[in-house]
Design brief:
With 324 residues, the chain is an alpha+beta fold. It has a domain at 14-143 and 242-323: Bira Bifunctional Protein, Domain 2 (BirA Bifunctional Protein, domain 2, 2-Layer Sandwich). The chain has helices spanning 21-40, 77-85, 123-137, 149-157, 166-175, 186-198, 254-270, 280-289, 300-308; strands at residues 44-45, 51-52, 64-66, 70-72, 91-98, 110-119, 145-148, 208-212, 214-215, 224-225, 231-232, 234-239, 242-249, 293-299. The strands form three sheets. An eight-stranded mixed beta sheet has the order 1-5-6-14-13-12-8-7, sandwiched between helices. It has a three-stranded antiparallel beta sheet with strand order 2-4-3, with no helix packed on it. The chain has a three-stranded antiparallel beta sheet with strand order 9-11-10, with no helix packed on it. Strand 10 and strand 11 (231-232) form a beta hairpin. Helix 2 (77-85) packs parallel to helix 8, helix 5 runs parallel beside helix 6 (186-198) and helix 7 packs antiparallel against helix 8 (280-289). The two termini are 28 Å apart.
C-alpha cells in the first residue's frame, strides 16, 4: 500500500507548532490587552490589504512579489495613511507584514506589526504613548532614556559618524572586531557598526532607550528638521538590545515623497537591485492632504518575546517561515 505521505517530501514530525500552547495563549492575551488599550483611548481598529500593486521603496527592504505583479506589503503604512487622508481620525492595526530575505533569531519573513497613527500629535507625545503600551507588557526600571543617533556612536565607539573620516570609521570597526567588506561607503559602514556593535547594547541597562536625531538621509517617510544639521524627525525604541518600534513625525508632502522614492530607486538600480513600483493612489492621497500626525510601527512578535523572556522568534510563532 502506498503511504499517504509518499507524495509529500516533508518530515512528518514537522507538523507541530513551533511555539508551545501556553505561549500561544499568552499571545492571544497580549492581543486582547492591546485592543483594550486602544479602545480605552478612542483609537479605531482598521484592516487594510495585504497585497498591493505599489510599494514605498526603501533602500534595505525587499517586498515579496507575487500574484501577477502585486507585492505583499512590508507594512500597512500606505493604506493607513490613505484612511487618515480620508478623515479616519486616530487608527491602529494588527497586521501581517512580509519582507524577503529576513530570517533569523529575531526575524521571520512573515511577521506581525502593531501600527498606529495619531493626527495632531507630536512625535514626543507619541513616544510617551509607545512607552505606556510597552510597559503594559514588559517591566523596566525608570522612564525610558533618550539618546541621539550620533551620540551612541560617540559613546560606544568613540567616533562621530557624520563628521569623522571614513578612515576613522574603518579604524573603529577594526577595533570593535567588525570585518568590513571592500568598497563600503559611509552609510554602509555605519549600518554595519549599528547592527554589529551598537544596537545589541541599546536598552540593556535595565530600561528602554529611545534613539532620535537620525541623519536626514535616513528619513524614509519622516519629516526632516532643517537644522543645522538636518535630522529626520523619527525615533526607534530599543529594549534589551532589540529594536522594538520605529516612529515618525509623518511627512505628508506628495512631491517630497515622490522625490525620495525616485532617489531610493536610483540608488537600488546603481547597486544592481530592481526598481520598485511606487503607489500612485498613496501619492494622490498625500496630494489630497495627510493631516499633521505622528505614527509608529511596533513588532508585536518581538514584544511577546520580551514579555515571556524568549530569545528566539520561533518560540513565539505558531508556524515560522520554514514550517509554514
Amino acid at each position: 500500500m502506498t503511504s499517504l505521505f509518499s507524495h509529500f517530501p516533508v518530515d512528518r514530525a514537522d507538523w507541530r507548532p513551533s511555539a508551545d500552547l501556553a505561549t500561544l495563549a499568552a499571545r492571544a492575551e497580549l492581543l486582547a490587552r492591546v485592543r483594550v488599550f486602544f479602545r480605552d483611548r478612542g483609537v479605531m481598529e482598521v484592516e487594510t490589504p495585504l497585497l498591493s500593486p505599489g510599494t514605498a521603496p526603501e533602500p534595505n527592504l525587499e517586498p515579496i512579489a507575487c500574484c501577477g505583479g502585486r507585492h505583499l506589503v512590508t507594512s500597512p503604512e500606505r493604506h493607513m495613511k490613505r484612511l487618515l487622508a480620508a478623515g479616519s481620525g486616530p487608527i491602529y492595526q494588527v497586521a501581517k507584514a512580509f519582507r524577503e530575505d529576513e530570517a533569523g533569531r529575531r526575524h521571520n519573513p512573515e511577521f506581525t506589526l502593531l501600527e498606529w497613527y495619531r493626527p495632531g500629535w507630536s512625535m514626543t507625545a507619541l513616544m510617551g504613548e509607545v512607552a505606556d503600551l510597552v510597559r503594559m507588557a514588559v517591566e523596566w526600571s525608570g522612564p525610558p532614556r533618550e539618546s541621539t543617533w550620533s551620540g551612541v556612536f560617540r559613546r560606544l565607539l568613540g567616533v562621530d559618524p557624520l563628521a569623522d573620516s571614513i578612515a576613522e570609521l574603518e579604524r573603529a570597526a577594526r577595533e570593535a572586531g567588525v570585518g568590513l567588506p571592500a568598497g563600503l561607503d559611509r552609510e554602509g559602514i555605519c549600518d554595519l557598526l549599528l547592527s554589529e556593535v551598537i544596537e545589541p547594547a541599546l536598552g540593556t541597562e535595565g530600561g528602554a532607550l529611545f534613539l532620535t536625531g537620525f541623519p536626514a538621509s535616513r528619513a524614509a517617510m519622516a519629516e526632516i528638521d532643517p537644522g543645522p544639521p538636518p535630522v529626520a524627525r523619527r525615533f526607534e525604541l530599543y529594549v534589551g538590545g532589540m529594536e522594538l518600534a520605529n516612529g515618525y513625525q509623518e511627512e505628508g508632502d506628495a512631491r517630497c515623497l515622490a522625490e525620495r522614492f525616485q532617489a531610493v530607486n536610483d540608488a537600488r538600480e546603481q547597486t544592481g537591485r530592481r526598481r520598485l513600483p511606487t503607489d500612485p493612489r498613496f501619492l494622490a492621497a498625500m496630494e489630497a492632504g495627510l493631516p499633521p500626525c505622528a505614527g509608529v510601527a511596533l513588532g508585536l512578535d518581538r514584544l511577546l518575546m520580551l514579555r515571556l523572556g524568549r530569545p528566539d522568534l520561533r518560540e513565539v510563532l505558531a508556524f515560522p517561515w520554514d514550517q509554514a
